Amino acid sequence: MSKCAVKRGILTLRDCGEEGINTCSICARPVCAEHTRIRSSDTICVECFAKGEEEAKSAKGPKAPNAHPPVARNEEEWNDPDWAYSYRHYYYMNSSYNPFYPGHYYSDYYDDYDVRSFTQGEDAQLDDESAVAGGFHDS
Amino acid sequence: MLDTVANLDRSGDQLRKMAGWSVFLSVVIGFIAGVTSHSFPVFLLFVALAAVALAIYFFARHNDLSNNLRKFILPMITLMREDIDRGGTLTLRLNLSDPMAKEYQTGSETLRKRMNTEQTTYQLTWMEARTVLADDSTLELTITDQIRQRKTTRRNARGKVKVKLKYRVRHLIDVRIGFRRDSYALAHQESGPYASDMSVKEGEKRNMLRIRRVAQSSSITDTLPLNAVMETLSSAYGRVNLVKQEGN
After folding, report:
1. Best of B78, B191, B222, B231 to mutate (most A CBs within 10 Å, chain A)
2. How many Cβ contacts (< 8 angstroms) between chains A and B?
3. Please, which residues have CB within 8 angstroms of residue B143's CB and are 6 or more apart in sequence?
4. What is the ipTM of this complex?
5. Where do the domains of chain A lie?
């Protein structure tokens, strides 16, 4: 199986680097043990898990999703290993920030975040056919 | 270790709340029980209970730490950890004292226009963090609270003195990021959020960006929103572009 497809980081995204030992049942990407979560007997990646949690909270909330930043909802949540991923999803979706990704394995999974890549890197994406899903992102 | 301190602080807050309610209930129940049973010892027992609860309340209040630890510092560290490589170091200097303690007082005056208003100002730098991020950028983050307290005293027609306290809290967020020149190029744009609060110093190896942002609130119990700092850090990254490196 290939490398874990989950990206670490908030200001900049980077590859996890660990071996993928499971497959996420939602996005079908390979995922390492550290980034695997179990939800109702399904194996999913921490990013799909956090997205799901964040979207469920937003749907439940009486106001717009950006009315309650995660830290204001529950100050204890930071202790949860998924909290950083949940915050990251919330932050990317509700701010105008587009994170950088300087790696090789850009995936369209992150299209919603408008990830920034190299300014002069369009030619590289055509050369790199080994990229997991689609090569460099053209922001 | 900070987790343990945060848990102790949380328990301390709960204890203080419980002690406060115990004082109130002991006084009320003691008074009712004393009057209905016409028994002075019963009344004394409740007074003693109230005194113990009051002592616990003041002890917990004296040893209380700033809620910045639980509501800002620990969540912020959790987020920063994501941007630091494994084995990387985050140097932290924290001050969890009461920012309105005497040693942080920076001035006190009676306002000229309003003679019955006294203004006291305080300043406390409560967080200094320094690290190298996973992209090899250096980051220094400093947070300082400036508090202005205005105490207005008025006497009403019946001679009763009323005191009104008003606060203005300025959270100064100072960020200094050093972007490696071989990884990031300065974007030639002077617009965007906080662009006017940003200064750029071009160096041989790194370009240093300094940003100061001020977040304000009118309550001393409000903690600095995490988003305010994240937006400040993001704005620095908004000022640069990735440089294509050999092999990429």
Report:
1. B78
2. 92
3. B125, B126, B127, B128, B171, B172, B173, B174, B224, B229
4. 0.76
5. 7-127
